[in-house]
Design a protein that fits this description.
This protein has helices spanning 2-12, 16-30, 34-50, 53-64, 100-116, 134-144, 161-175, 189-198, 227-248, and strands at 77-81, 85-91, 94-98, 120-123, 152-155, 180-185, 204-208. By secondary structure, the chain is of the alpha/beta class. It has a five-stranded parallel β-sheet, with helices on both faces. Helix 1 packs across helix 2 and helix 2 runs antiparallel to helix 3. Residues 76-242 form the DUF218 domain.
């Protein structure tokens, strides 16, 4: 019964509600002029499928599966890429918090540091005037998680993945480090690896923060539109476009 309720809710609330409204408009137009009705139907179906986990998981999964998580580390520094932060929000030992993806990346880096002893370089600045400075927040949280200050490096100036790579390359050269273990979300890894290659760095990919499950099962929930699926589809398309640009301008 709970799954039936979830299915119904997905079409009563946005974004599913908008699909029903558009289908209603298609039916109304069909009686007047079939050509615009068919065009609108095509647009509606495209919107609908982009809102479903069936499509969003397939798109994001294609990115996440490109680099498998390695069994052993082969590097001399753990490089973590930021993924957004809030400013002024309460934290245990200060203000400002990393967004979900960035926080997951940070946790992975701390766990890798615990058994490898490698230093951590966190790269990410203040992207917007009302957002937090990612590297500064990350340093405070790393200290709170028990990472020694001498094992923490930061780049608090980068505003995008390309700058992450360029600024990281400069810091590593200054510190005499040459083999970064790159930690970022699985969907973000292909584009990040290309930018690091463009910056002259040979990195070992250590993806984390996965979205799509490894095992796929076809079930009704895969066909229900949801805000989460829209967000995932948008994220995946952004990464594919960014990867293309990174390849073109390497």
């Amino acid at each position: 019964m709970i799954y039936i309720i979830k299915f119904v809710y997905s079409f009563v609330l946005p974004p599913g509600l908008f699909i029903l409204l558009l289908l209603g408009l298609v039916i109304w137009l069909w009686k007047k002029n079939r050509r615009p009705a068919l065009i609108l139907l095509g647009v509606t179906l495209l919107m609908y499928f982009s809102m479903t986990p069936l499509v969003s998981d397939a798109l994001i999964g294609g990115l996440e599966r490109k680099y498998p998580q390695p069994d052993t580390l082969q590097g001399d520094v753990i490089v973590v890429l930021g993924g957004g932060a809030s400013s002024g929000t309460p934290d245990i030992d200060g203000e400002g918090n990393l967004y979900g993806s960035a926080a997951n990346r940070l946790i992975t880096a701390v766990r890798l540091h615990k058994f490898s002893g490698l230093p951590i370089l966190f790269s990410g600045g203040q992207v917007f005037s009302d957002s937090g400075n990612e590297a500064d927040i990350a340093k405070r949280q790393l200290l709170g998680l028990g990472v020694p200050e001498e094992d923490i490096l930061t780049d608090n100036q980068s505003l995008n993945t390309e700058q992450n790579a360029v600024n990281t390359a400069a810091i590593l050269q200054e510190k005499g480090l040459k083999r970064p273990v790159l930690v970022t979300s699985g969907f973000h890894m292909p584009r990040s690896m290309q930018h690091f290659k463009n910056a002259g760095l040979t990195a070992q990919a250590f993806p984390t923060d996965y979205i799509a499950s490894a095992e796929f099962s076809l079930q009704p929930s895969k066909f229900t539109p949801s805000p989460g699926a829209i967000s995932t589809t948008g994220t995946a398309l952004k990464e594919y476009l960014g990867l293309l640009v990174a390849h073109l301008f390497n």
